[in-house]
Amino acid sequence: xxxxxxxxxxxxxxxxxxxxxxxxxxxxxxxxxxxxxxxxxxxxxxxxxxxxxxxxxxxxxxxxxxxxxxxxxxxxxxxxxxxxxxxxxxxxxxxxxxxxxxxxxxxxxxxxxxxxxxxxxxxxxxxxxxxxxxxxxxxxxxxxxxxxxxxxxxxxxxxxxxxx
Length: 164
Fold this sequence. Notes:
Blueprint: H1 3-9, H2 13-18, H3 24-49, H4 52-65, H5 71-89, H6 106-129, H7 139-160
Protein backbone atom coordinates (compact mmCIF):
# COMPACT_ATOMS: atom_id res chain seq x y z
CA UNK A 1 0.00 0.00 0.00
CA UNK A 2 1.42 3.38 -1.01
CA UNK A 3 1.57 6.52 1.11
CA UNK A 4 -1.27 7.94 -1.00
CA UNK A 5 -3.43 4.85 -0.38
CA UNK A 6 -2.75 5.14 3.35
CA UNK A 7 -3.81 8.79 3.29
CA UNK A 8 -7.03 7.92 1.46
CA UNK A 9 -7.79 5.10 3.90
CA UNK A 10 -7.22 7.39 6.88
CA UNK A 11 -9.93 9.89 5.95
CA UNK A 12 -12.49 10.57 8.66
CA UNK A 13 -16.27 10.59 8.12
CA UNK A 14 -16.40 14.34 7.41
CA UNK A 15 -13.68 14.07 4.74
CA UNK A 16 -15.52 11.15 3.15
CA UNK A 17 -18.76 13.18 3.18
CA UNK A 18 -17.07 16.21 1.64
CA UNK A 19 -15.70 13.95 -1.12
CA UNK A 20 -19.31 13.49 -2.25
CA UNK A 21 -19.50 17.16 -3.31
CA UNK A 22 -19.20 17.27 -7.12
CA UNK A 23 -15.72 18.36 -8.18
CA UNK A 24 -14.33 18.39 -4.66
CA UNK A 25 -13.12 14.79 -4.60
CA UNK A 26 -10.65 15.43 -7.45
CA UNK A 27 -9.35 18.51 -5.67
CA UNK A 28 -9.05 16.55 -2.41
CA UNK A 29 -7.21 13.72 -4.18
CA UNK A 30 -4.71 16.22 -5.53
CA UNK A 31 -4.17 17.59 -2.03
CA UNK A 32 -3.61 14.04 -0.76
CA UNK A 33 -1.09 13.56 -3.58
CA UNK A 34 0.76 16.68 -2.49
CA UNK A 35 0.89 15.46 1.10
CA UNK A 36 2.00 11.98 0.05
CA UNK A 37 4.67 13.51 -2.22
CA UNK A 38 6.00 15.65 0.64
CA UNK A 39 6.14 12.68 3.02
CA UNK A 40 7.85 10.55 0.37
CA UNK A 41 10.50 13.19 -0.34
CA UNK A 42 11.14 13.76 3.37
CA UNK A 43 11.63 10.03 3.86
CA UNK A 44 14.10 9.88 0.95
CA UNK A 45 16.00 12.90 2.30
CA UNK A 46 16.26 11.26 5.72
CA UNK A 47 17.61 8.07 4.17
CA UNK A 48 20.25 10.14 2.34
CA UNK A 49 21.18 11.95 5.57
CA UNK A 50 22.16 8.56 7.02
CA UNK A 51 24.88 8.30 4.37
CA UNK A 52 26.85 11.05 6.10
CA UNK A 53 27.76 8.76 9.00
CA UNK A 54 30.09 6.50 6.95
CA UNK A 55 31.69 9.60 5.40
CA UNK A 56 32.31 11.02 8.87
CA UNK A 57 33.82 7.71 9.97
CA UNK A 58 36.15 7.67 6.95
CA UNK A 59 37.24 11.25 7.67
CA UNK A 60 37.92 10.49 11.35
CA UNK A 61 39.90 7.34 10.48
CA UNK A 62 41.94 9.23 7.88
CA UNK A 63 42.68 12.03 10.30
CA UNK A 64 43.79 9.66 13.05
CA UNK A 65 46.03 7.67 10.73
CA UNK A 66 47.53 10.77 9.15
CA UNK A 67 46.34 9.75 5.67
CA UNK A 68 44.77 13.03 4.69
CA UNK A 69 44.90 12.33 0.95
CA UNK A 70 41.31 11.07 0.75
CA UNK A 71 39.75 13.85 2.79
CA UNK A 72 39.14 16.04 -0.27
CA UNK A 73 37.08 13.28 -1.87
CA UNK A 74 35.16 12.72 1.35
CA UNK A 75 34.37 16.43 1.61
CA UNK A 76 33.37 16.52 -2.08
CA UNK A 77 31.01 13.57 -1.51
CA UNK A 78 29.57 15.21 1.59
CA UNK A 79 28.86 18.51 -0.20
CA UNK A 80 27.21 16.77 -3.14
CA UNK A 81 25.19 14.60 -0.78
CA UNK A 82 24.00 17.70 1.10
CA UNK A 83 23.04 19.40 -2.18
CA UNK A 84 21.01 16.44 -3.46
CA UNK A 85 19.39 15.85 -0.07
CA UNK A 86 18.20 19.46 -0.01
CA UNK A 87 17.01 19.29 -3.62
CA UNK A 88 14.87 16.29 -2.74
CA UNK A 89 13.60 17.75 0.52
CA UNK A 90 12.65 21.11 -1.00
CA UNK A 91 11.68 20.02 -4.53
CA UNK A 92 8.56 21.40 -6.14
CA UNK A 93 5.55 19.38 -5.13
CA UNK A 94 4.42 18.54 -8.63
CA UNK A 95 0.88 19.79 -8.26
CA UNK A 96 -0.09 23.42 -8.34
CA UNK A 97 -2.70 24.48 -5.84
CA UNK A 98 -6.27 25.37 -6.80
CA UNK A 99 -5.56 29.09 -7.22
CA UNK A 100 -2.02 28.80 -8.65
CA UNK A 101 -1.30 30.65 -11.88
CA UNK A 102 0.89 27.87 -13.28
CA UNK A 103 -0.96 24.56 -13.54
CA UNK A 104 0.51 21.19 -14.45
CA UNK A 105 -1.49 18.75 -16.55
CA UNK A 106 -2.33 15.25 -15.36
CA UNK A 107 0.01 13.52 -17.88
CA UNK A 108 2.98 15.57 -16.69
CA UNK A 109 1.95 14.98 -13.09
CA UNK A 110 1.95 11.22 -13.72
CA UNK A 111 5.47 11.52 -15.19
CA UNK A 112 6.62 13.42 -12.08
CA UNK A 113 5.29 10.62 -9.88
CA UNK A 114 7.19 8.09 -12.01
CA UNK A 115 10.35 10.15 -11.43
CA UNK A 116 9.63 10.21 -7.71
CA UNK A 117 9.30 6.43 -7.59
CA UNK A 118 12.57 6.06 -9.51
CA UNK A 119 14.27 8.29 -6.94
CA UNK A 120 13.96 5.40 -4.48
CA UNK A 121 16.32 3.35 -6.65
CA UNK A 122 18.76 6.25 -6.77
CA UNK A 123 18.69 6.65 -3.01
CA UNK A 124 19.26 2.90 -2.62
CA UNK A 125 22.30 3.15 -4.92
CA UNK A 126 23.74 5.98 -2.80
CA UNK A 127 23.13 4.01 0.40
CA UNK A 128 24.81 0.95 -1.13
CA UNK A 129 27.87 2.99 -2.13
CA UNK A 130 27.97 4.42 1.40
CA UNK A 131 28.18 0.90 2.78
CA UNK A 132 24.77 1.04 4.45
CA UNK A 133 23.61 -2.06 2.56
CA UNK A 134 26.23 -4.20 4.25
CA UNK A 135 29.32 -3.43 2.18
CA UNK A 136 32.34 -1.22 2.52
CA UNK A 137 31.93 2.50 1.79
CA UNK A 138 33.27 3.53 -1.62
CA UNK A 139 33.64 7.30 -1.86
CA UNK A 140 34.07 7.46 -5.63
CA UNK A 141 31.04 5.18 -6.19
CA UNK A 142 29.08 7.33 -3.75
CA UNK A 143 29.93 10.49 -5.68
CA UNK A 144 28.86 8.81 -8.94
CA UNK A 145 25.58 7.62 -7.40
CA UNK A 146 24.85 11.08 -5.96
CA UNK A 147 25.60 12.70 -9.34
CA UNK A 148 23.23 10.24 -11.08
CA UNK A 149 20.52 11.08 -8.55
CA UNK A 150 21.15 14.79 -9.10
CA UNK A 151 20.68 14.30 -12.86
CA UNK A 152 17.40 12.48 -12.21
CA UNK A 153 16.21 15.42 -10.10
CA UNK A 154 17.08 17.82 -12.92
CA UNK A 155 14.97 15.69 -15.27
CA UNK A 156 12.07 15.88 -12.79
CA UNK A 157 12.36 19.65 -12.63
CA UNK A 158 12.36 19.86 -16.44
CA UNK A 159 9.06 17.97 -16.54
CA UNK A 160 7.57 20.30 -13.92
CA UNK A 161 8.70 23.39 -15.77
CA UNK A 162 7.17 22.07 -19.00
CA UNK A 163 10.49 21.87 -20.81
CA UNK A 164 10.14 18.15 -21.53
